[in-house]
Amino acid sequence: MKIATWNVNSLKVRLPHLVGWLGENLPDVICLQETKLPDDRFPASALKEAGYEAVWSGQNTYNGVAIISRHPVTEVVAGIPGFVDEQKRVLAATAKGIRIICVYVPNGQSPQSEKYAYKLAWLEALTAYVANELAQYPELLLLGDFNIAPEDKDVHDPALWMGQILVSPPERAAFNTLIQLGLTDCFRKFSQEPGQYSWWDYRMNAFRRNMGMRIDHILASEVILGKISGCLMDRMVRAQEQPSDHVPVMIF
DNA sequence: ATGGCTTCATAGTGAAGA
To answer: What's residue A249's pLDDT?
Structure first.
């Protein structure tokens, strides 16, 4: 099994990249974030031609998530049940017996912003939801763009980022609370290397200089963790023409 | 150094992302 996540930063722009990546990697499932498409413009037929079915929850301009699978998906749930939110950031489905929860965690903008308070409240609601899902589904993956770098070694310049979004102690505490539900950061199961990133700013030649952050994650329940043999960030995707600023993360 | 790019939006003194 190969399962991946990728913030595509506009599925309209990145559809050719996605179809190419599917053909080269043949994942069983890939979760997408920032599709930025209303539901009636989701490219379901192009993905069907590539051999994948899809479920999606989108909106115009911002946010938007999707789960794309070579296998049938069932039990599709959009959003966090009981948490009122117009922003399309969560989609859950079951494929091959695995509960897959695709998330696009709010960015937060700045610690002083209302969007930051929304991010923390959103993460609290997500935590309660995932706890409930874990009780029902021992085989569970929580994956997507978390907009949190868990540790300083996931940040190119921790001193520069100190006190800012993506690294602030409340965000990291929220991430650790998710971990403590019984989930493991798959990348860190296999590697303790610093400087391994999933996102690089479009500006300042950040990718060439490896000035990035590891903010896209795949968190696995114990049962799943025992079945996987690796986790990687496909950083070469960032060197393509007109790339997303994020690259795919994949377990296998 | 709060920008530098990219996207989607509108035609802004743009907004938002990370």
So the answer is: 98
pTM, entire model: 0.97
- Token pair 């979760």 is found at A31
Q: Tell me the CA–C1' distance in angstroms for A205 and B3.
A: 13
List, for residues A125-157, the tens digit of each pLDDT value.
Answer: 999 999 999 999 999 999 999 999 999 999 999
CA triplet A228, A129, A184: central angle to 5 degrees? 25
Nearest-angstrom CA–CA distance, A104 and A10: 13
Task: List bases in chain B with any atom under 7 Å of a protein Cβ.
Answer: 2-9, 16-18
Residue A154: predicted pLDDT: 98
Checking each nucleotide's C1' against the CA of A204, the nearest proves to be B4
Of A76, A35, A81, nearest in space to A58 by CA: A35
Query: Which DSSP state fits A235?
Result: G
What confidence tier does A193 reach under pLDDT thresholds 50, 70, 90? Answer: very high
User: What nucleotide is nearest A37 when CA is compared to C1'?
Assistant: B8
Sorted by sequence, the CB contacts under 8 Å of residue A133 that are 6+ apart come out as: A92, A99, A101, A140
Share of chain A above pLDDT 70, in %: 100
- Distance from residue A227's CA to nucleotide B8's C1', rounded to whole Å: 41
Which nucleotide is nearest to A60 if distance is taken from CA to C1'?
Answer: B8
Can you give the distance from the CA of residue A40 to the C1' of nucleotide B18 in angstroms?
28
pLDDT tens per residue, range A78-90: 999 999 999 999 9
- Closest Cα to residue A161, out of A149, A144, A170, A173? A149
Residue A70 is classified by DSSP as S
A208 CA vs B3 C1’ separation (Å): 18
